[in-house]
């Protein structure tokens, strides 16, 4: 089985200089846990997880105790918190390759890129488990 058979092709991306407020809005409105970061040329530059965002924001954002300093954490830029040089695979790579990388590097997703390093999909450990589970 190849990754193009199990990947999520509707990839949501953000750019290096986007503010964390944009990332927060995306995570709040969607039901996924990773965003791919692209450069101006559309190539993959990094990954941001919902956990990365939680670590970067003040825990008081959106609460009654929120101060100006808490709100300012939403002005940080994507490039300040993203994981750089993410491990990626190609659509024609085997699911077994993804399993090996997810386990070896203790990561929860793999961007899937084309020959020009532009994102065409994403595979999470959940996608892999669903693909190999017994019906």
Question: What features would you describe in this structure?
Answer:
The protein is built from 6 helices and 6 strands, in the order E-H-E-E-H-H-H-E-H-E-E-H. The two termini are 16 Å apart. The strands form 2 sheets. A 4-stranded mixed sheet has the order 1-2-3-4. The protein has a two-stranded antiparallel ribbon with strand order 5-6. The chain is 33% helix and 20% strand. The chain has helices spanning 20-29, 50-56, 68-72, 78-81, 95-105, 125-132, and strands at 13-15, 34-38, 44-49, 83-84, 109-113, 119-124. By secondary structure, the chain is of the alpha+beta class.
Tag the structure with descriptive keywords.
alpha+beta, single chain, four-stranded mixed beta sheet, 135 residues, two-stranded antiparallel ribbon, globular
